[in-house]
Amino acid sequence: MSVIKVHDKQFQPYIGAVELQQRIKEMAEQINKDLAGERPLFIAILNGSFMFAADMFKHLTIEAEISFIKLASYKGTKSTGNVVQAIGLDEDLFGRTVVILEDIVDTGKTMSQFLPQLEHQQPKKLIVASLLTKPEAMVHPIQIDYLGFSVPDKFLLGYGLDYDGLGRNLPEIYQLVESEK
Ligand SMILES: O=P(O)(O)OC[C@H]1O[C@H](OP(=O)(O)OP(=O)(O)O)[C@H](O)[C@@H]1O
Ligand code: HPA
C-alpha cells in the first residue's frame, strides 16, 4: 500500500484489508453471541455501507435478515432543519430487533435524524453497528453498540467511503494526507 491520488487529493494507507476483515469478523462473532434467537433485521445504509454490510453478513451464523436503504436529505421547516427520509424501507419494524449498519458515524447528524424515525415504529431493540467513528467530530452524540474503529477527525477513503464519488472500491481505508486537511 502506498500513497494514492484521487481527484486532486493525496491519501495515505490507514487501515489495511487484513485488519479490517479481522475486526469485522470479531464484530460479527459478538453479534452472533448477543443476538442469537432474535432473528435480527439488519438495515444497511447505502451507499457507503455496502462493503461492510456484505462482509459482516458473511460472518453471521445466526438467523438474520438484511435490507438496504438509502437516506435522502431534503430541507425541512425552519425548526426541523434538514430532514432525512428512508427510501426502500418496506419492513415493519414493530417488535423486531433492528441493527443499523453504517460505514461511518462522523458528526452523528445522519443517525441523530434517522434513529428517532425508526423508534416511531417501536422496534424491540434498535442497535447501531458502525465500522468507524470520529469521536472528535461528533456533534450529535450517538450510542454505537458495535464499533470497528475509533479514528481521528481526518477524511477517510476506501472500503465504501468515497471522495466525490471515487475510491469506494478500495479494499482498505486511506486517510487524507496531513497537509491537505
Ligand atoms: O455522521 P454524519 O456526519 O452524518 O456522517 C455519516 C454519514 O455520511 C456518510 O454518508 P454520505 O452522506 O456521505 O453518503 P454515501 O454513503 O452515499 O457516501 C456515511 O455513510 C454516513 O451515512
Ligand atoms: O471521512 C469520511 N470519508 C468519506 N465519507 C464520509 N462521510 C462522513 N465522513 C466521511
Question: What's this model, at a glance?
Answer:
The chain is α/β, with parallel strands linked by helices. Strand 1 and strand 2 form a beta hairpin. Hypoxanthine binds next to loops.
For the largest sheet, list the strands in their spatial order.
5-4-3-6-7-8
**Separation of termini?**
21 Å
Q: Strand percentage, roughly?
A: 25-35%
The structural class is: alpha/beta
CATH topology: Rossmann fold
Order of helices and strands: EEHEHEEEHEEEE
Mean pLDDT score: 95
Protein name: Hypoxanthine phosphoribosyltransferase
GO molecular function: glycosyltransferase activity
InterPro entries: HGPRT (IPR050408), Hxn_phspho_trans (IPR005904), PRTase-like (IPR029057), PRTase_dom (IPR000836)
Organism: Chitinophaga hostae
Give a structural overview.
It is found in: Cytoplasm. Residues 21-163 form the Phosphoribosyltransferase domain. Pathway: Purine metabolism; IMP biosynthesis via salvage pathway; IMP from hypoxanthine: step 1/1. Its main location: cytoplasm. This protein has 181 residues and is an alpha/beta fold. It has one domain (25-155): Rossmann fold. It has three helices and ten strands, in the order ββαβαβββαββββ. Helix 1 (17-34) packs across helix 2. Hypoxanthine binds at residues 104, 106, 155-156, 161-162. Residues 45, 47-48, 102-110, 162 line the site of 1-O-pyrophosphono-5-O-phosphono-alpha-D-ribofuranose.
